[in-house]
Amino acid sequence: MKDNHIPGIQKKLLIIDDTEVNRVLLREAFCKSFNILEADNGIKGLSLFKKNETQLAAIFLDIIMPELDGFGVLLELEKHDVLRRVPVFLITTEASDSVVDRAYKYGVVDVIPKPFNMEIIQRRVMNIIELYNNRNQLETLFNQQMHVLSDQGFRLQENLWSIIEGLSATVESRSAETGNHIARVKNITGELLRSLSVSHPEYNLTESKIELISRASVLHDIGKISIPDKILNKPASEGRLTPEEFEIMKTHTTNGCKLLDSIKGIKNSSIYSYCYDICRSHHEKWDGKGYPDGLKGNDIPISAQVVSLADVYDALISKRVYKPAFSHKEAVRMINDGECGMFNPDLLEGFNRTIDNIYDKLYRKDFDGQTFKI
């Protein structure tokens, strides 16, 4: 068999489904990347799982099966703490809200409706497998190297941060955004924090904190891995997100925090609080009209406030599937006029003082090498 699997990922994929045609379709879609294990009922599936647990990259699981249904299998997998380490995809023709809600409560990473759209399934499954692989590496490395955390500098070794940035890049690859969004948000965050630290020392932004917040910013959208492609990359030709779709999109904040919580060993460190605050609160607004918690004013962590502004600016001047790119001047005007929500006046002051220099440094040339109009 040709070995096209993602480097570092376990080489086996388990399909538990009593319908042979489903197993054939999934086998054909993934046989070039993984060794495929198949079971036609839940009992056989659990037996294969126990024999191959440490080598599994992912599990496909049908709901309605003889002897033991999908939810029965999930109960057993939960006992082995599997769903934190291995992505489980539920296969179903019964995609009612109650079934989907129950599946997600068990920890299923995605629900795949029948009949299959194999192109979408392949892309989504491979991205999620890579995400889990990176996250598992991060957890292992973090637990091995807790002693390198500095009480004064709040630093992690560079190899640990490279895994964190790789994790964020995996998420970015799912989104139809202009490349390097995460890197630019990180750089803008650092510049805005330094400006704020000079003009408003009451925020106590030391250089070590600035570096940590900047680097933690790369995880701001990590929860987007849980958002279906049809919502995450909905093109402008199909209209704006519906209210129901927007509610799902908003969950990337809380789902990102759940992902962080699943990384054992990180929760008691100072780095965790910055990552968590940014992930959860980067869509909160100064006037309390943001989400998910409706925080207001400086109840919003300053780290999340700064990342929010950096994220909004980059989104405005970048081309997205749902909009064209705005000019630098128009983006600055929109932010100051509150068209993108209200921001901290202290932060806006520093933004206006430094954004022209930031633009010159990061955006003077567009992604095709052409000069932007200011």
What does this structure look like?
With 374 residues, the protein is an alpha/beta fold. 52% of the residues lie in helices and 7% in strands. It is built from 14 helices and 5 strands. The chain has helices spanning 20-30, 42-52, 70-79, 97-106, 118-144, 158-174, 181-199, 207-216, 229-232, 243-261, 270-281, 302-317, 328-336, 345-362; strands at 12-16, 35-39, 56-62, 88-92, 110-113. A 5-stranded parallel beta sheet has the order 2-1-3-4-5, sandwiched between helices. Strand 1 (12-16), helix 1 (20-30) and strand 2 form a beta-alpha-beta unit. Helix 7 crosses helix 12 (302-317). The longest helix has 27 residues, at 118-144. It is elongated.
Nutshell version of this structure?
The chain has 374 residues and is α/β, with parallel strands linked by helices.
Which keywords apply here?
374 residues; alpha/beta; five-stranded parallel beta sheet; elongated
